[in-house]
Amino acid sequence: MTRYEKLFEPLDLGFTTLKNRVLMGSMHTGLEEEKHGFEKLAAFYEERAKGGVGLIVTGGISPNFRGRLSPLGSELSKPWHVNKHRQVVDAVHRHGSKICLQILHAGRYSFHPFSLAPSAIKAPISPFKPKAMSVGQIQRTIKHYGRAAKLAQKAGYDGVEVMGSEGYLINQFLCPRTNQREDEWGGSFAKRMRFAVEIVKQIRRQVGEQFILIFRLSMLDLVDDGHTLDEVITLGKALEQQGVTIINTGIGWHEARVPTIVTSVPRAAFSWITERVRRELSVPVVAVNRINMPDIAEQILASGQADMVSMARPLLADPHWVAKAQAQQAEQINTCIACNQACLDHVFEQKRASCLVNPLACYETELVMKPVTRAKHLAVVGAGPAGLAFACYAAERGHQVELFDRNSEIGGQFNYAKQIPGKEEFHETLRYFSQRLKATGVKLHLGKQVSLADFSQGQFDEVIVATGVAPRKLDLPGIDSDKVLGYLDVLRDHKAVGKKVAIIGAGGIGFDVAEYLSHEKSLATDVAAWQQHWGIDTDYQHRGGIEQPTEQPPLRDIWLLQRKPSKVGKGLGKTSGWVHRAELKRAQVKMWNSVQYKRITEQGLEIERNGETQTLAVDHIIVCAGQVSEQSLFNQLQQAGVHCHLIGGADVAAELDAKRAIRQGAELAALV
């Protein structure tokens, strides 16, 4: 009997059967808009189909021009759009997986001036105010959904998913927050839900009964004036009556101020609402959000919370997640750490998505690890993210690789990041690399401080230097005071820190140290405490499922300081930075910009701000003022004529940039 019995149980939909209970959730990649992007998209989805996914849902495709996410966004509305989709469908079908096209009309979330919505209410995340749809535009849009579904069927898709959540157009019709109409499309819930019901009815009319129709139902809006639970269930039952095959869960609008997918969200934090709605419905229901390992997926299915589990980013991180789980090799899964740095942050910046821990994602035709024609003997110095990535990919290609690190464990600065409350998932990346080193045959030398003499005898064909970074030292009067600690003193050496703290430097490391010092414990494994912390109303007594969050007295008196005049935290990730700022604000951390550091005295840190000099009476000053690259070994190797390469932080010191480091390691490994 398989360890994950429910996960690999086929799902009978009546007219067709899914081979397992894993749905690859919709995620826009940016390939949809690139020249020749659908060829690359086909390779991207094919790799996940090879990996055993039961059902794939594409990124959102608009049914018409006005519904596009951006002016050049993808739509499926003309017969000549069909052919490019066929190559995606064929690639997936070659491996026995099924694929559905997601139809998404952005409504007021469109980033263009032609946007439409139920009412002319501007979204806080878009610069454009939409026009209120006329009755004629509503009726035409319903037909456009049906047309898109019919074209998807012609392209060979097994079905469609209707995006009815996350604050997009259908969700906008459903909630009084955005629907203030007084005609037959607004007012009572029966009228507000009419748009969704008519769309499903129109699609079913166009495609017939033998076609998968998924509806992404917003079960928890997490915004004021969102759904009530009764409305969610009422809509779910109405959709069943119109022939929906599967109900997928939607959690939170994009404008919600409650985190739903970042790494600090506990695993399966929202499966409770899927379970609540599933009790009332008869069609299969899908659980979503922060399901990244087989154990948690199996638990959701075996306990009856859902009939399927949806994962998007975990299948970016490891396209063979399903196959590894089925082979009882969960320890070899490259786990999604929910950092969003290379996926969602890229998409919101109009860049191609990829993955921090898997830089091959969405680059399957460009970043290819081909077997070597001549194996080399390679030395890698530094077992941080860049060195680990290079060593594993190079060994996988067939090179003989030896990896050296002066520390007693792999990971480099990941070992500090994993200690930050809400970043516990970083442990998974180090577990994965540890397994991968063994599987690829990399010879690991820990606790080994190497020098030029170790490489000057010609025993290695090439040396890859990934020695990382060192903290930048400050030239400040009093810097040698006992009050002064570096971030390594805190995160690596765990030195005692007082109750009043000034942090010099508000980059990623400064924020991490502030998080570390302002939380007594992490909420990552305590779902109930996390829900209370963010004001999630699990009793669903309030519209949208939100209530006043719990407040705790601050653990310390903290100042987070930066020289720049820009907003503190401006350089953090687009989809996660607001969460970090919100957490520190709730911990009453004072985030100050435009600070000039004068001196450190017995009384504390003397600064100048807004033309005034003051002394912050603190117990400790923690320096997080950036890093410098460790390049001494590389320079010595170059001078000695040793063939060497420089990667990661040793090449460019940039705020613990693991995304760049891992990608650079992979790119070099593909070339050597």
Write up what this structure looks like.
The protein is α/β, with parallel strands linked by helices and 672 residues long. The protein has 3 domains: 11-348, TIM Barrel (Alpha-Beta Barrel); 377-470 and 628-671, Rossmann fold (3-Layer(aba) Sandwich); 473-520 and 555-625, FAD/NAD(P)-binding domain. 31% of the residues lie in helices and 17% in strands. An 8-stranded parallel β-barrel has the order 3-4-5-8-9-10-11-12, surrounded by 7 helices. Strands 15-14-13-16-27 form a 5-stranded parallel beta sheet, with helices on both faces. Strands 18-25-19-20-21 form a 5-stranded parallel beta sheet. It is globular. The mean pLDDT is 96.
What attributes does this structure have?
21 helices, metal-binding, Rossmann fold, 672 residues, iron-sulfur, iron-sulfur cluster binding, FMN binding, 3 domains, FAD/NAD(P)-binding domain, alpha/beta, TIM Barrel
Strand order within the widest sheet?
3-4-5-8-9-10-11-12
Helix tally equals 21
* Full CATH superfamily name of the largest domain: Aldolase class I
Question: Could you say which structural class the secondary elements and strand pairing correspond to?
Answer: alpha/beta
Brief synopsis:
Residues 377-652 form the FAD/NAD(P)-binding domain. The chain has 672 residues and is α/β, with parallel strands linked by helices. The chain is 31% helix and 17% strand.
Topology:
Blueprint: E1 11-12, E2 17-18, E3 22-24, H1 37-50, E4 55-61, H2 82-93, E5 98-103, E6 116-117, E7 131-132, H3 135-155, E8 159-164, H4 169-174, H5 189-192, H6 194-207, E9 212-220, H7 229-241, E10 246-251, H8 271-278, E11 285-287, H9 294-302, E12 308-311, H10 313-317, H11 321-326, H12 344-348, E13 377-381, H13 385-397, E14 400-405, H14 414-417, H15 426-440, E15 443-446, E16 462-465, E17 469-471, E18 484-486, H16 487-491, E19 500-504, H17 508-518, H18 527-534, E20 557-561, H19 577-586, E21 590-592, E22 595-600, E23 605-609, E24 612-616, E25 620-623, E26 627-629, H20 632-639, E27 644-646, H21 658-671
Parallel strand pairs: 3-4, 3-12, 4-5, 5-8, 6-7, 8-9, 9-10, 10-11, 11-12, 13-14, 13-16, 14-15, 16-27, 18-25, 19-20, 19-25, 20-21
Antiparallel strand pairs: 1-2, 17-26, 22-23, 23-24
Helix pairs in contact: 1-2, 2-3, 3-6, 13-15, 13-21, 17-19
